[in-house]
């Protein structure tokens, strides 16, 4: 009553043993593919982790750098500016990790929150009644009167260019893991598991427990079993090319590190621009939002002190050159894995599974 290991000679197998063999080959094939995938997956996961750690480090540095601007140059609003600064960098982090948000919305939301502070603490420091309605009016007015000039738009442009490639690379790496995980758990067809039993276990039914499959026979069986997986070859090669392109984009002129360190300078220039145009802004705001309560004896506007960029930017970029090195090492490794899915059958038939240095092997029917 054997269905797979039928043979004219007497056999020591039963139908139940054949069923056990089928379960065994499914388990073994999954383990074999997992073992093949391990190194590749380890490299991708490792790079995702390294990339995210380096990126978080860059963000923390840029956030601290930006906070220090308010503490040193714009002390009257430093405490209240802390939350908008934190929100800005949180939004940037979420964008990189693939959240449904944009760099533009993050930056403009920051400047919306910043304008009421700049207006009430620097341009008109005598304001005492900053009600919720008045604050909201200032936020909405910011979009129409553009108090920060072209600096807010420039910041959107610079960050969008550099963060786009980082966001895409982050998503591409996650997609790579997803693809590898899917191939590990690709279900074997009934025909495939029968062919694998015939190749690996049917010799046992004749008492030939040491004989192993012939190389050509193994390749035929594996290629048939893994046809759907090897079809990924063209897309995998394209995926590697895309990773290479994105890594080059990140390392090109729109350097992530430089863009993040430039946030400090963009915000500083934007605030200075608003202060220099204080009288015109006040006149427009008074028309739209009304005149707020002032302290007795109107205080003069805070002195405008241009703050020069400190040499931290150079240190900032130098401290994170390792990110570029990690990218280069990773892409070099991934380029070597271009043929991963094309050669998966050959790799599974390598090693102990087949008989290579012997004159006898199993061809599916007999010892040859």
UniProtKB/TrEMBL annotation:
Is Magnesium found in the keyword set? no
Query: Which of UniProt's keywords are assigned here?
Result: Cell membrane, Glycoprotein, GPI-anchor, Heparan sulfate, Lipoprotein, Membrane, Proteoglycan, Signal
Major localization listed first in the record, in broad terms: membrane
GO biological-process terms attached to the record:
cell migration; positive regulation of canonical Wnt signaling pathway; regulation of protein localization to membrane
Q: Which GO terms describe its cellular component?
A: cell surface; extracellular region; plasma membrane; side of membrane
Q: Which Pfam families match?
A: Glypican
Listed InterPro entries: Glypican (IPR001863), Glypican_CS (IPR019803)
Q: How does the record classify its membrane topology?
A: Lipid-anchor; GPI-anchor
Q: Where in the cell is it found?
A: Cell membrane
Q: Which PANTHER family match?
A: GLYPICAN, GLYPICAN-5
Q: What does this protein do?
A: Cell surface proteoglycan.
Q: Which family does it belong to?
A: Belongs to the glypican family.
This chain belongs to which protein, by name?
GPC5 protein
């Amino acid at each position: 009553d054997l269905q797979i290991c039928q043979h004219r000679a007497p056999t020591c197998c039963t139908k139940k043993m054949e069923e056990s063999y089928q379960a065994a080959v499914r388990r073994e094939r999954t383990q074999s593919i997992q073992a093949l995938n391990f190194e590749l997956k380890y490299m991708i996961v490792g790079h995702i982790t390294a990339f995210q750690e380096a990126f978080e480090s860059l963000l923390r540095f840029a956030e601290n750098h930006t906070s220090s601007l308010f503490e040193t140059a714009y002390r009257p609003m430093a405490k209240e500016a802390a939350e908008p600064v934190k929100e800005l960098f949180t939004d940037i982090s979420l964008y990189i990790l693939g959240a449904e948000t944009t760099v533009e919305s993050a930056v403009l939301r920051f400047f919306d929150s910043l304008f009421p502070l700049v207006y009430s603490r620097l341009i008109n420091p005598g304001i005492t009644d900053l009600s919720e309605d008045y604050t909201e009016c200032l936020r909405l007015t910011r979009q129409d009167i553009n108090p920060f000039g072209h600096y807010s738009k420039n910041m959107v442009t610079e960050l969008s260019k550099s963060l786009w490639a980082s966001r895409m690379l982050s998503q591409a790496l996650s997609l790579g893991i997803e693809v590898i995980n899917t191939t590990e758990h690709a279900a074997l067809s009934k025909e495939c598991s029968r062919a694998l039993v015939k190749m690996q276990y049917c010799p046992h039914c004749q008492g030939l427990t040491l004989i192993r499959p012939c190389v050509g026979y193994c390749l035929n069986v594996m290629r048939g079993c893994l046809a759907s997986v090897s079809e990924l070859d063209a897309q995998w090669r394209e995926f590697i090319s895309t990773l290479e392109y994105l890594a080059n984009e990140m390392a090109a002129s729109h350097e992530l590190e430089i863009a993040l360190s430039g946030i400090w300078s963009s915000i500083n220039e934007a605030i200075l621009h608003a202060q220099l145009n204080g009288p015109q802004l006040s006149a427009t705001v008074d028309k739209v939002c009304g005149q707020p309560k002032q302290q007795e004896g109107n205080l003069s506007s805070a002195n405008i002190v241009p703050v020069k960029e400190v040499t931290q930017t150079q240190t900032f970029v130098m401290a994170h050159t390792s990110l570029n090195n990690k990218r280069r090492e990773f892409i070099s490794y991934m380029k070597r894995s271009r043929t991963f899915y094309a050669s998966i059958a050959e790799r599974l038939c390598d090693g102990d599974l087949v008989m290579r240095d012997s004159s006898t092997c199993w061809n599916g029917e007999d010892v040859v």
